[in-house]
Amino acid sequence: MVAILGPTASGKTALAARLAYEICGEVISADSRQVYRRMDIGTGKDLGDYMVEGTVVPHHLIDIAEPGYEYNIYEYQRDFLDAYRMITGIGRIPVLCGGSGMYLEAVLKGYRLTKAEEDHALSDVLRDKTDAELVSMLMSCKTLHNTTDLEDRPRILKAILVARAQDDNGYTGASRGAAGDKPPFPAIRSVIFGVAFPRDLVMRRITERLENRLETGMIGEVEALLAEGIPPARLIRYGLEYRYITLFLQGKLSRSEMFFSLNIAIRQFAKRQMTWFRRMERRGMKINWLDGNLPDVKKIEMIRNFAGI
Predict the structure, then answer these.
(1) Does the reported pTM lie above 0.85?
(2) Closest CA to 271 of 192, 206, 193
């Protein structure tokens, strides 16, 4: 498998789609929000990128859940394996693409995850903790946790319960540890590439993309989700675009306040993504970084030469 990762606004989707087209491959998304239907602009699906030379490049794990549903890492691992086996079963090459570090690492390292059973005693203890105490507890867990969990108390609570359950089942977040009766995650030979731009250029690309998305219907997308009955609190919990645009539509932020706050939040998110990728490297995962300023044709040439495909 070839994996292409990078922070938001790095152009990784277009690169992955073009690569998949050239090597007879199919793309598997590793994005925690692109799984949701009708959440297109805010999640940056950029579905037009999958149209290459008049051909739609097959892509998976996009538009597989309804908005409002809380899709999780356990389900992602399961669905990834289904897509991976289908792609390899027909003799094509999987191209994993995304920026959700937890999703990427869970399949690239082959973590064995279990479903977390509800722990009522622990829930009662956590309920009395302050937000700061909960964040500290989450950070101390051995298992992986997504940085977006730190934005919302219910998600912090859920993340702690899941992480503690994984720790209790022997999941260390660094090996193929025991996980009840779940079979081992298959070893997948992968070569990993990252797309990186200079920091100031990433920040500029984020602002320009945000302006474009606001001009091309992102606010209307959130309005439509609210109109179909999705609770505002649930959209806010999806973070970033859905959080700040919902607050704007509720009259809690002016448009300028929404843009300013959202732009900063996306920039901070991009920094957290890079922090996660660097941590992956420190834990022994080799990421071959590509200069984002290079044209995609050059990047693909480098990928193919390095990976031998």
Answers:
(1) no
(2) 206
Q: Tell me: the pLDDT tens digits for 247-296?
A: 999 999 999 999 999 999 999 999 999 999 999 999 999 999 999 999 99
List Cβ<8 Å contacts ≥24 apart for 63-70.
Answer: 63/34, 63/35, 63/36, 63/37, 64/35, 64/37, 65/35, 65/36, 65/37, 66/36, 66/37, 67/36, 67/37, 67/38, 67/39, 67/225, 67/228, 67/230, 67/234, 67/235, 68/230, 68/231, 68/234, 69/36
Residue 94's SS3 state is strand
Beta bridge partners, 181, equal: 179
Q: Which two tokens stand for residue 43?
A: 């999640």
For residue 265 the two structure tokens come to: 């939040």
In order of 8, 106, 174, 218, 237, the CA distances from 156 in angstroms are 23, 19, 22, 27, 11
Instruction: Tell me the torsion sign for CA atoms 94, 99, 105, 107.
Output: negative
Task: Report pLDDT digits (tens) over 115-141.
Answer: 655 555 666 677 777 777 777 777 666
Beta bridge partners of 36: 65
Domains and CATH numbers, the chain: 2-110+185-307 (3.40.50.300), 114-175 (no CATH)
CA distance 172 to 4: 25
